[in-house]
Design goal:
β5, α6 and β6 form a beta-alpha-beta unit. With 377 residues, this protein is α/β, with parallel strands linked by helices. Helices cover 38% and strands 16% of the residues.
Length: 377
């Protein structure tokens, strides 16, 4: 089976994890801070806070903006459910914005149309690893005095106007799930340039508890700590951080391989009628190419998908628009909110792209696709 994506674990990664397991600290130890320093450098930010998952990163970032019951949050419809779920965790209301039908990225004009007096936060998603239109989104957030969080789960290693993805929003969240740019098993992080947000995030990931003498209301001894916020146990372990440290040394190589594969697909798929390839990178950006999403005839999508699987190629679909999940429908969201997102979902298939994908296997993917389209013409 050729998967649509998978992790790349080297001997150096295994050795790093072994060292961590034998270290006195399995959690809350020095590997966390070292990993965070690497992440901040890669994201082009002053700070990074490592947490237990990409979802935890979203929850922490949203909490840091102060959103609460009744506040509205603009979220693109084309994303994994967690991007919106974390809004609900805080009692706020997701308001779904439509997407660009070519890229799956948030439609800035539609996002602006959906801003109301209750809107407090703007969220964008770097769908497939392609940077969102950050300049326009930053201007939109400033115009309406909104906090701005970027869900960069797909885009660690991407660039925007020559800068690493990470510092364009007030906070950018990352995921280290095995199919992402780097893998820590599970894990995530928040990058920011804001010291106050950084300090809140550190506290939020540890039950809302602080030991910082400058923040304590009284001094009862060197053991003393206080809970200042309703936080969560979102700590990353040193075992995960050690794997992350080791993986970060190959981040540039991983992204280079993904970009090379993405550049090769148009040549391999050029003569296949009936498919739409993702747009090429613009001159002011580089994608991390987390996904390679093609679009096909929605009437044939299921047959094409099943034919791929039958041929031993593990394609996937990303994503059902969040509000079309039964849970969201049960709380009042209805079909038709974001027509571009619904059309994109109906047509999308993610074909394999990951650092370990060989040219031979990529050729096999292209050959299989040609055969499938011949059979389903």
């Amino acid at each position: 089976m050729i998967p649509y994506s998978t992790q790349d674990i080297a001997d150096a990664d295994v050795k790093a994890v072994e060292r961590a397991v034998r270290h006195p600290y399995l959690t809350q130890g020095p590997a966390i801070e070292r990993f965070e320093k690497q992440l901040a450098e890669a994201a082009g930010t002053k700070y990074a806070v490592a947490v237990s998952s990409g979802t935890a990163a979203l929850h922490a970032a949203y909490a840091a903006t102060g959103i609460g019951k009744g506040d509205e949050v603009i979220v693109p419809a084309m994303t994994f459910a967690a991007t919106a779920n974390a809004v609900l965790y805080l009692g706020a209301v997701p308001v779904f914005a439509d997407v660009d039908p070519a890229t799956g990225l948030i439609d800035v004009a539609d996002a602006e149309r959906k801003i109301t007096k209750k809107t407090k936060l703007l969220v964008s998603v770097d769908y497939s690893g392609r940077p969102a239109p950050y300049r326009a989104l930053r201007a939109l957030a400033k115009k309406y005095k909104l906090a701005y969080v970027s869900d960069g789960a797909h885009s660690l290693g991407a660039t925007y106007y020559g800068q690493p993805v990470g510092g364009q929003a007030d906070m950018t969240t990352f995921s280290f799930h095995p199919v992402k740019s780097i893998a820590t098993g599970e894990g995530g992080a928040i990058a920011t340039n804001d010291r106050a947000l950084y300090e809140f995030l550190l506290m939020f990931r540890t039950h809302g508890i602080t030991k910082d003498p400058k923040k304590l209301t009284r001094d009862e001894g060197p053991w003393y700590q206080e809970m200042h916020a309703l936080g969560f146990n979102y700590r990353m372990t040193d075992i995960q951080a050690a794997l992350g440290e080791s993986q970060m040394k190959r981040l540039s190589a991983f992204i280079k391989k993904r970009r090379a594969l993405a550049a090769r697909y148009p040549k391999l798929l050029a003569k296949i009628p009936g498919i739409v390839l993702p747009p090429p990178e613009r001159t002011n950006e580089t994608s991390a190419w987390h996904l390679y999403p093609i679009q096909v005839d929605p009437k044939k999508r299921r047959a094409i998908f099943e034919a791929f699987r039958a041929a031993g190629i593990g394609v996937q679909v990303h994503y059902l628009p969040v509000y079309r999940h039964p849970y969201y429908e049960s709380i009042g969201y209805k079909k038709g909110l974001c027509l571009n997102a619904e059309s994109f979902y109906a047509r999308e298939i993610s074909i394999p792209i990951y650092p370990r994908l060989s040219k031979r296997d990529q050729d096999a993917v292209a050959h299989t696709l040609k055969n499938i389209f011949t059979d389903h013409a």
